Amino acid sequence: DKVHVESILHRLLEDHPALISVLGFTEFISEQPVYKIGKDNKPLLSDKRRRDRIDLIAADVSQISQPSGLPYKSAHIVELKSAGISIADRGIGSRLGEEARKAVEQLNEYQRWLTSIPENRLILEDIGWDLRIPRKFLIMGRTNEFSSNPGQLNEVRARLDEAGVLLFTVDEILDKATK
Hints:
Shape: globular
Helix content: 25-40%
Strand content: 15-25%
Radius of gyration: 17 Å
Number of helices: 6
Structural class: alpha/beta
Distance between the termini: 20 Å
């Protein structure tokens, strides 16, 4: 099962953009480098080697048009993790596993960096994407992790929803794309 490796999942989405469209996205940028905030709470702009790369920044199109007449496109952050990584910490409850917690922390940092550092916003504004309130998406794990406790996936999703993160398993993305 090749989607157990994150880089293969990433390449699969790049090669088949229709897979990411099941989440309502019309286009995306892969591996976008972004400036981050340093220990002094200031943007690190001078050292381009220290930039992080966001797995995907994806856009959806609103029914509302911009004053220019072009469609309004809103940018969102997508973090990809391997299908082979557990989402939950254990078989009951909504506590996240270590990799899922790290992914949520990453999403929160990316959101902060994108919305608070003007140089990051400009990258997306230049292609016509708005970045006021990006949603955060986490794609990881397998649905069968919850086969012995099906309600647990909903518990985990509710907990992540409170943190502003939408969770989809790799299986769900693939299933939606094939229907």
